[in-house]
Amino acid sequence: MRWALVKVALAVTVMVVVAFAVPLGLVVKEMARDRAFSNAERRAAGLAPVLAITTDREQLERAVATTDDGAEGRLAVHLPPPPGEPGGPGEVIGARRSSGDDLATTRALGRATIAEVSGGFALLQPAAVSSGQVAVVELFVPEGEVTNGVATAWLVLTVVGVALIIGSVAVADRLGLRMVQPAQRLARAAHELGEGRLGARVREEGPPELKSAAVAFNSMADQVVQLLANERELAADLSHRLRTPLTVLRLNAASLGSGPAADQTRAAVEQLEREVDTIIRTARDAKPQTAATAPVAGCDAAEVVRERMDFWSALAEDEDRKVRVAGVERPVRIPVARPELVAALDALLGNVFRHTPDGTAFSVDLHNGEDAVIVLVSDAGPGIPDPAAALARGAGSGRDGSTGLGLDIVRRMAESTGGDVRIGRSVLGGTEVRIWIGLGETGGRGGRGDGGERRGRRVRGTRGTPGGHGLPAGRGGSGGHGRRRGR
């Protein structure tokens, strides 16, 4: 494309230069010729007054010799024949170059004529003498004087034409380069994106059309990266949700006793857990999924908590864990889809079973506030040494089998409502994970910026705890009035 533009510009410029330079050169040549003969005619007319007065040879010779042209031998005077010899030859004063026919033609026409002679041209100017006859003044004009300045003018025209051609080619090359380079960068980025290099982007510059194409390409590439990230995220989330039934299988397999079938079952469960961990770790570098903007139908948090606690309580009895649940007596509506809340609770409760020893107590408290709902999951285990790292995606808690994706599922669920997740020390002595679920835009923004103290005041019937989180009065410790399950 670049060379095509250069060729087009070259052809067009050459045609323009030829169309203007050739006629202009011919005009310059004609003007130089006219100027030379006009000057010659003016100098030849200087002898007309002398011829009108006298035709004496000596006087005419002196008059011719006094002129510059006569001194250089370029001026001649052809006198008419004597009155008694009408057809005879007349006298010639000076160097003659023209022929008799040229002289006769000039006398017949009665005006100046130009005759070609050796080395140049002869200007023949008729002039009347005192006898009434016509004499002819001949002035020799050399070839160089006729073409004086023509070569210089043609050279200037040639230089100007070549400069125009070079300039047009250079401008066309720059314009072509300005168009070709963005197109080449766009093509190169498209090839890189096709080869799997998702970081390929194009500088948004160049002509408006190519700049628009670059903007569209970058937007498309960002969308592709986001879609792939969401796919990996979904795979990781779904894999993490498999941990809940895997935990049940592992606990049930542990109670099968001994024997080849039991050993094979436990080995299969362990292998399946390793495969799930591999899938989760493969997706650890995926971007966080964009929060949904569509309205969510929501669910009854109290019902979901009761259902999941019924499920996990059976496993807790097998491991001699004390369980407490509170705040689920009345319906609590939240703007979270039921599967999302189930996945978040299962992730937190699964972490309790996975990272605390048998016999460790845990509890789930649900608090309904004016602008938010708080879900507290507490345990009496050793706690999390680095809560900030645990909240970061892929950081985990540092123990074997931890990918950190469970807390990320909980965090994204809370942030989709304008809330957040915080980790602290529970009244049971272990970890307390507090899920702040916003019920509106004001509550969500205020809760995220004001910290735990403001939120504790906004939740009905709460008081401070050692972990800095609000708990309902009368439900502060493991010996509260909530429902217990134990062996």
Radius of gyration: 55 Å
Total of helices: 15
CATH superfamily of the largest domain: Histidine kinase-like ATPase, C-terminal domain
For the termini, the CA-CA separation is 83 Å
SS class: alpha+beta
Q: Uncertain runs with pLDDT below 50, 5 residues or more?
A: 285-295, 394-401, 441-487
Named at the architecture level, the CATH assignment of the largest domain is 2-Layer Sandwich
Reported for the largest beta sheet, the result is:
6 strands, mixed
Please bin the fraction of helical residues.
40-55%
In CATH, the topology of the largest domain is named: Heat Shock Protein 90
Count up the domains.
3
- Global geometry: rod-shaped
What is the level 1 CATH name of the largest domain?
Alpha Beta
Secondary structure: number of strands: 15
Please indicate the percent range of residues in DSSP E strands (runs of 2 or more): 15-25%
Describe the structure.
With 487 residues, this protein is of the alpha+beta class. The chain has three domains: 149 residues, Beta-Lactamase; 71 residues, Helix Hairpins; 190 residues, Histidine kinase-like ATPase, C-terminal domain (Heat Shock Protein 90, 2-Layer Sandwich), CATH 3.30.565. The chain is built from 15 helices and 15 strands. Strand 11 and strand 12 form a beta hairpin. The two termini are 83 Å apart. This is Signal transduction histidine-protein kinase/phosphatase MprB. Keywords: ATP-binding, Cell membrane, Hydrolase, Kinase, Magnesium, Manganese, Membrane, Nucleotide-binding, Phosphoprotein, Protein phosphatase, Stress response, Transferase, Transmembrane, Transmembrane helix, Two-component regulatory system, Virulence.
